[in-house]
Amino acid sequence: MAVPPGSGSGSRSDSRVPVSEVHDVFERRDDLARPVTASDVMDAVDCSRRTAHNKLNELVEEGILETRKVGSRSRVWWTPIDNSDREAHGEDILGRGPVEEVDLPGTGETLQARRDALVAAYEYLRVYPEAKKSDFLKEVFPDHPAGFETAEGWWNAIQPALAELPGVDPPKERGHIWHFLGG
Q1: If pLDDT is split at 50, 70 and 90, which confidence band does 88 have?
Q2: Does 175 fall in a domain?
Q3: In angstroms, how far apart are the furthest CA atoms of the chain?
Q4: Is 38 exposed, middle or buried (0-12, 13-18, 19+ CB in 10 A)?
Q5: 58 and 142 share a domain?
Q6: Of 100, 104, 79, which is closest to residue 160 (Cα–Cα)?
Q7: Which of 166, 169, 23 is nearest to 99 (CA)?
Q8: HSE on the CB side for 123, CA within 13 Å?
Q9: Is 11 exposed, middle or buried (0-12, 13-18, 19+ CB in 10 A)?
Q10: Residue 74 and residue 125 in one domain
Q11: Quick one: 99 and 54 in the same domain?
Q12: Residue at which a domain ends, from 24, 51, 78
């Protein structure tokens, strides 16, 4: 029977995996905004879960990576993006970088109000990195209705656009919790 990489048998130990090799996993991603799991590292460098966690935590201690829990037993890691990096990559959300490119209904003042509502929803998620639809409807919609008469109509326009923004992890199928994974 074949043993999958990182399962322990035949995988490399902590002392045999240079921390730079784990850091390279982050550099080689196609989607630089996508967070990395310990399983991703295990598969990429053929090491045990313990080794992956040790090396990832070493990179966090060095200030190279950030981490957060995303479930009762799950954790993700990512390379933080500071404001100067965002500006260099056109990703300054407050400066409207990707917000200008997101498809929202409307034109003129209506479109601008909807972009403002999207930024407000994004900022809410940054402050409260685990939020439900009801949180957005209760906390963001009243101050940023963006020309919508109902909260449901507002959400139907805002939520697909919110899902496209950097660091946003929308709920999986049948899920209810939105996560902010950015730095």
Answers
A1: very low
A2: yes
A3: 63
A4: buried
A5: no
A6: 104
A7: 166
A8: 16
A9: buried
A10: no
A11: no
A12: 78
pLDDT exceeds 50 at position 4? no
In a domain, 166, yes or no: yes
Backbone φ/ψ region at 175: left (φ over 0), alpha (ψ -120 to 50), beta: beta
Report, as an integer, the average pLDDT of 132-149.
94
pLDDT-based confidence at residue 152 (cuts at 50, 70, 90): very high
Whether residues 112 and 65 share a domain: the answer is no
Please, which residues have CB within 8 angstroms of residue 76's CB and are 6 or more apart in sequence? 35, 36, 37, 67, 68, 70, 181
The residue range of the domain holding 120 is: 88-180
Q: Which residue's structure tokens are 């890691």? A: 77
Domains in the chain: how many in total?
A: 2
